[in-house]
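COMPLEX REQUEST
Ligand: PRP
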Amino acid sequence: ADERVKRISEKIGTYPDFPKPGIVFRDIFSVLADPSVFQDLLAVLEEQIRAVCPDVEIIVGLESRGFLFGTPLALALGVPFVPVRKKGKLPGELKQVLYTLEYGTDVFEAQAKCIKLGQKVVIVDDLLATGGSMKAACDLVTSIGGTVSLCLVCIELEDLKGRETLDKPFKAIVKF
Ligand code: PRP
Ligand code: MG
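STATUS: Structure written out below.
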């Protein structure tokens, strides 16, 4: 396996019983605290995008931790970065989608003009848990007219089977 992925995996912080008993929290910020490992992570993410979707036209990042990876990847690939934000933060003409949280629902929004019909979109986030956030982002991008070519995350929590909720190509760098 890739030596960089091993280094990334070993850097991810693990906190049992956070934010509540029984949950094992995986902390991506400990990777960002080490510039060389952060650089490795960005390089591996970029390689995944170039392998699966070399003609990507838009990088979408999910508020907030998806912004950490989406913005440098968009710059590296030379394509626009488009944010998906929680309700009430974005101005202008918006598209909305409802998504499911552990308790209740929330709303994701994106600016409709930022994605043109048929453009190839890669959606980036830090982590896939239940898949609710990523699925909602896929639905939002699709409703605007974009084509979701890849859903890409740093960490996948495999036990939660979030991948099964997605009907688009999916890649994760590290799996727990
Ligand atoms: C976390 C994480 C993912 C999402 C994964 O974000 O960053 O975006 O949850 O969970 P899911 O697969 O069950 O939807 P959170 O909503 O906590 O907000 P943050 O990124 O702003 O910290
Ligand atoms: Mg998030």
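REMARKS: Helices lie at 3-11, 29-32, 35-52, 65-77, 132-144. Strands lie at 13-16, 24-27, 58-62, 81-86, 94-100, 105-111, 120-128, 147-156, 170-175.
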